[in-house]
Amino acid sequence: MNEQPTSVREWLRGLEVFAGPLAEFDPAGAPADPVELFLDWLREAVAAGVPDAHAMTLSTVGEDGGPDARVLILKNVDGDGWQFAAHAGSPKGRQLADRPRAALTFYWPRLGRQVRVRGAVEPASPEQSAADLLARAPSARAEVLLGRQSEPLESPEERDRVFRTALARIEAEPELVSPEWTLYTLVPGRVEFWQADKGRLHHRLRYERPDRDTAWQRHRLWP
Questions:
Q1: DSSP letter assigned to residue 204
Q2: DSSP assignments along 87-105, one per residue
Q3: Taking burial as the number of CB atoms within 10 A of a residue's CB, which of 92, 154, 198, 208 is the most buried?
Q4: pLDDT, tens only, 164-217
Q5: Are 22 and 44 in contact (CB under 8 A)?
Q6: Contact 35, 79 (CB under 8 A)
């Protein structure tokens, strides 16, 4: 029988990190645009079988000035930036309305890779947001209609009843959308690529630009 660790600290220190064969990364050969490198890394993560490779942590500033974070799914990425969607009345929607800046974090442990994106957040047009919502499954659209995200739940029965009502509305009105569903674009001012190294001499490459009309500058960083 394995002996139990004497403390959580010892147990955590004993967990293996960077266990698998790590990916290779030569910052000197990185492309001029971080979007190109990000998509290369994302495709490699999917090919390596990383679960939910398009999942990301969205970090915002809360009403109290403190950080807030949650995991979302990436909708798209192109020359304009990284896209995600949320209910405007949700905590993250309200936070973005008050302070329209955020950070995204992607982590692909099988490859030992991490990508961090920071910048301003811009809402899409109502038409674009509606199109994004209509592309979702009926159950997902019904959940959006509830409009109660993060509010206290009195009982699961109430939740199920309200959800069934919302789903029936979706089935009766296939084009029905919530006007508060919003597609957002994070316009990056900084993108960092991090490649783990078993010897802890991690490779880090940061792309920076003061505005979207300026060319990207690249900087290698100390581990």
A1: E
A2: ETTSHHHHHHHHS-EEEEE
A3: 92
A4: 999 999 999 999 999 999 999 999 999 999 999 999 999 999 999 999 999 999
A5: no
A6: yes
